[in-house]
Structures are given as structure tokens and as C-alpha cells.
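Translate structure to sequence.
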């Protein structure tokens, strides 16, 4: 009887080892990461300071580009040569078509839904609005390129609504996103939020870029 129990325990141990050994890494080196930077081409003088803040110089171009480098996926998550990776971009800088610009207190990717920030007052001229109130009256643009269209009957609590607050770069280890840079932005700062989904959400990495717009 003791012999049978011993054999059973050995089989259980071997099975456990086999399971651990065959556990699938999402990224080929076991760690998923992403590094992002501002493309300085077309923006002479643009630099990253000692605090990690990017100072973007306006040089006649009304846009700049964020580029990234991602870790490679394990072949299990590469289909016909296409890596299953998605990079999403968001920011706390919004503006309207009338060139009213403000930074919204977003502290994480899609942070508008993280702590009821949708109710934070936004000063527009001599008036203040919440985000839902403003969308009922005008179209809102974001630094990263998405647009929340004017909708008098908007329901910001709908589960699908938050998916509008981002732009995407998919299926590439070298994601990039061009973003607007109007002269009206000069003197302002912003935070760009980046979320990388590796292997169909098997592993998610969040990054931030802080930028300052300068002449």
C-alpha cells in the first residue's frame, strides 16, 4: 500500500513539473516591455530632459509622431507572421473645434472612468461644463487623434463609450501614432497614456509620456 502511495506521489510531482515547464511565455524573453519616444524628425531642437519630459519644438509642422519598440512575442502568439499585439494611445489634452483647449485630470489609461472624473468642471470662457454637458453642445478632439462627436443624447455610461477614447496601432512591434501640434498648444503640457496588449490581452503593459509644447 505504501509503495502504491509513493508511486502516486511521484507521478503527481512529475505531472506538476511538466505543467510548469510547458507554461507558455507571452513574450519570447519571458518579459513584455515597450519603450516609446518622440520622433525628432521635422522638429529640430526637440529633446528629453533629465526628468523624462519631452520638449517638443514647433517647426512649422502641425503634428508630431510618437514611436515605440515592443518586445517580441513567443511564436505561439504570432499567426502567419502577424504578432497579436495592440498599442492604444490616449491623453489628457482635449480641445474643441473653436480652439478651446484644456487638460483633463486623467491619471491612467482611460482614467475618465477610474474615479468619476467625467464630472470634473471644465472652464470654457466664462462658463464651466462637465464632459457630458460639453459633448451635448460641441465635438471634442483629443491630442492623440480621436474625436468625440457632438451628441445631444449622449450616454457616457454605456459600456462601449469608453472604447472611443483611444487610437490604436495594431499587429506591429514598432507602433507609432501621429498627433496634432497646433501653435495654440505652445506653452502647454500634456501626458500621453499608452497601453500595450500582448498576446490578445494575455499581458498588459501601461506607459506614459509627458510632453511640453514649445516654440
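Result:
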Amino acid at each position: 500500500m505504501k509503495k502504491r502511495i509513493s508511486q502516486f506521489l511521484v507521478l503527481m510531482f512529475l505531472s506538476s513539473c511538466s505543467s510548469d515547464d510547458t507554461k507558455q511565455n507571452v513574450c519570447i524573453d519571458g518579459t513584455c516591455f515597450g519603450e516609446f519616444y518622440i520622433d525628432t524628425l521635422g522638429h529640430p531642437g526637440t529633446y528629453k530632459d533629465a526628468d523624462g519630459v519631452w520638449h517638443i519644438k514647433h517647426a512649422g509642422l502641425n503634428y508630431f509622431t510618437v514611436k515605440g519598440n515592443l518586445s517580441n512575442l513567443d511564436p505561439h502568439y504570432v499567426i502567419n507572421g502577424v504578432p497579436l499585439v495592440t498599442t492604444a494611445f490616449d491623453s489628457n489634452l482635449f480641445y474643441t473645434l473653436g480652439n478651446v483647449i484644456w487638460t483633463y485630470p486623467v491619471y491612467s489609461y482611460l482614467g475618465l472612468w477610474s474615479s468619476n472624473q467625467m464630472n470634473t468642471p471644465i472652464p470654457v470662457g466664462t462658463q464651466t461644463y462637465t464632459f457630458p454637458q460639453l459633448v451635448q453642445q460641441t465635438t471634442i478632439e483629443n491630442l492623440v487623434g480621436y474625436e468625440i462627436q457632438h451628441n445631444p443624447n449622449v450616454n457616457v455610461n454605456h459600456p462601449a463609450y469608453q472604447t472611443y477614447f483611444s487610437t490604436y496601432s495594431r499587429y506591429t512591434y514598432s507602433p507609432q501614432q501621429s498627433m496634432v501640434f497646433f501653435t495654440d498648444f505652445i506653452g502647454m503640457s500634456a501626458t500621453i497614456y499608452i497601453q500595450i496588449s500582448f498576446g490578445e490581452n494575455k499581458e498588459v503593459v501601461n506607459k506614459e509620456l509627458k510632453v511640453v509644447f514649445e516654440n
